[in-house]
Amino acid sequence: MPNKTIYVSDDDLPLFERAQELSGDNLSAVVVRALRRFIEIEEAKEGGMDEVRVLVGTAGYHRRKRFTGVRLVRWLQSTGDRKGTQILNVYRTAKDHYVLHTRTVPYWKLSDGDPDYMGDPKNWGVGNGLLLKISTWGYDWEAFKVSGDYTLEVFDTLEEMKPHVSSELYQAVVLAGDNPEIEDLDI
Fold first, then answer.
1. Predicted confidence (pLDDT) per residue in 12-47, tens digit
2. What is d(CA 67, CA 100) in angstroms, rounded to the nearest whole number?
3. DSSP readout, 82-144?
4. Which residues lie below 8 Å from residue 140, measured CB to CB, with a gap of 6+?
5. 114 — phi, psi (to 5°)?
6. Model pTM?
């Protein structure tokens, strides 16, 4: 078995000693695992991808999920019952899968005595484009992560995802996938 020598500075020695304690004296396995993760992340970055972190769960109980990918499309639409807004993000992962992350935000009442609530199309919400307008201002609606339900679905292919999204969203994903996120211009 080939040997590799790694030189460690005095300042980093406690880090290596702690890693060896946690690994049960198999520091080589820890180094190899860290190198695999490092290479995976750096190669993904070279391909225009980054680490993505999303919430999953229902209001009051959320967990975080993490993967390497690139967001292709962000989409806002009214829920089927017109009582909320869905914020959909479609990502392509480093392993060429497609992720559909959906956040469903219920419309809020303006006050307990007010029968009209913010989601009414004549006032707020997707109906008159307030959330769409806010998103064009560069406002990150995800800043209010305390409300809403979050789901994450992974599809092996774009075709597999097609029945789970609107035709307009599907078309936007197809267009985004056909074009690079960043185009280098020689101007």
1. 889 888 888 888 878 888 888 889 988 888 887 887
2. 13
3. SSEEEEEEEEEETTS-EEEEEEEEEPPBS-TT-S-BTTSTTTSHHHHTHHHHHHHTT--GGG-
4. none
5. -95, 115
6. 0.68
